[in-house]
Amino acid sequence: MAGILYDARKIKIYEMVKALCALAGESSQWGDVLWNGLLDDRELMEEMIYYLQHHCFLAKCRCEGYTLIDLFVHEMDIYNLIADSGKNTESCNKETMVLRAFQDMINMKKDPQRFQKKLSDGFGMDKYL
After folding, report:
1. Nearest 5°: phi and psi at 90?
2. What pLDDT, on a 0 to 100 scale, did the predictor assign at position 35?
3. Whole-number mean pLDDT of the chain?
């Protein structure tokens, strides 16, 4: 078995992402889609590792001028609109918003114009993302 190197870093990160998904109430399948998106984007994976270590955003990754912080705030706005509370109550799961911000960035990098239009147009009277 000499010469075989085992790098468990990605396995550890995967386990942490899955645990975060469970904490946030997201399904295992949803977590796998997020994980595959992270594997395809080294810069976004770096953001996730930083978030897991520090519990805050590095905000280095950008798409069309937006960072994960912008997408997180957008997710909070969606929650506030749906919850009809106008503010973040104790029932608001911030980890869910974080994970959705990561998924939003993955989606935005795939189709920047469509996603940027949704961000700039706002919600309107009866719509949300």
Report:
1. -65, -25
2. 96
3. 83
Residue 31 CA to residue 89 CA, distance in Å, equals: 25
Partner residues linked to 66 by β-bridges: 63
Q: 101 with 78: CB under 8 angstroms? A: no
Residue 19: which of 60, 52, 46, 42 has the closest Cα?
52
**What tokens does 122 get?**
């706002």
Q: What is the pLDDT of residue 36?
A: 96
DSSP per-residue codes, 47-110: HHHHHHHHSS------BTTB-HHHHHHHHHHHHHHHHT-SS--TT--HHHHHHHHHHHHHHHHH
Give the pLDDT of residue 87.
55
Q: Whose CA is closest to 65, among 122, 116, 121, 117?
A: 116
